[in-house]
Design goal:
Distance between the termini: 33 Å
Helix content: 10-25%
Number of strands: 13
Shape: globular
CATH superfamily: Ribonuclease Z/Hydroxyacylglutathione hydrolase-like
Structural class: alpha/beta
Strand order of the largest sheet: 1-2-3-4-5-6
């Protein structure tokens, strides 16, 4: 199994610079793996980052989407075509990518917020598509060259997943955030009970570092001290 995993954070702005989001490029002896893809406004920046790190068509082995929000998925279909790579995500969020609707399979009734999000994060039909691989809880990614496992962690969305490596690196999508310098469970949980259950689930796993979609990486102990 390829080893010597290198983690390359890629910071990508959102429209109007309202915030930013992290994608993570992982590199090992077998090639590259991209966790999340940013929104379409940052597509050129993402391509430049991939190129500058030596990730060219044929070297990118898999795109993994931690959940279906547009700031994580919007470049996935484009990159699939450009790099000839498969896209993987959990089935419970797949409809977000397929329908261009980040409220798909979510219990959320705030019409004003929905209208605002659709205005700021408009999702064109060309960016929609079905994932190639449907991830399940506990699945191994070793068959694609990445020594890591999938942990389904619903709360922010039903199909949210974390990716955990044997060395304890956890890529958590939007389950946790660290935007204010204080790591915490994301307050934007569409299912609070599921989010708390996901936190308890992770406490049983050998986690060392957490890499969130928003904010700087942090040690597990900063979130949940002994």
């Amino acid at each position: 199994m390829p080893s010597n995993l290198e983690i390359i954070p890629i910071n990508l702005p959102l429209p109007l610079n309202i915030s930013d989001v992290h994608a993570y490029l992982l590199k090992n002896d077998d090639g590259f793996f991209l966790i999340d893809t940013g929104f379409t406004n940052s597509r050129r920046r993402l391509e430049r980052e991939l190129e500058s790190n030596g990730c060219s068509p044929g070297k990118l082995k898999l795109i993994i989407l931690t959940h279906g929000d547009f700031d994580h998925t919007a470049n996935a279909v484009y990159l699939r075509q450009r790099f000839g790579v498969k896209v993987a995500m959990h089935h419970a969020d797949a409809g977000m990518l397929e329908n261009g609707d980040m409220f798909w399979n979510r219990k959320f009734d705030n019409r004003l917020v929905k209208r605002l999000m659709r205005l700021l994060l408009h999702y064109k039909s060309s960016n929609r598509g079905s994932p190639d691989l449907l991830l399940e809880d506990g699945a191994s990614l070793s068959g694609y060259g990445l020594d890591a496992s999938v942990v389904n962690t619903p709360g922010h969305s039903a199909g949210s997943v974390c990716i955990l490596t044997p060395t304890g690196d956890l890529f958590c999508g939007d389950l946790f955030i660290n935007s204010s310098g204080k790591p915490m469970l994301n307050s934007m949980l569409y299912n609070q009970q599921a989010g708390l259950a996901s936190l308890e689930k992770l406490k049983a796993l050998p986690i060392r570092m957490i890499y969130p979609g928003h904010g700087a990486p942090f040690k597990w102990e900063e979130l949940s001290p002994e």
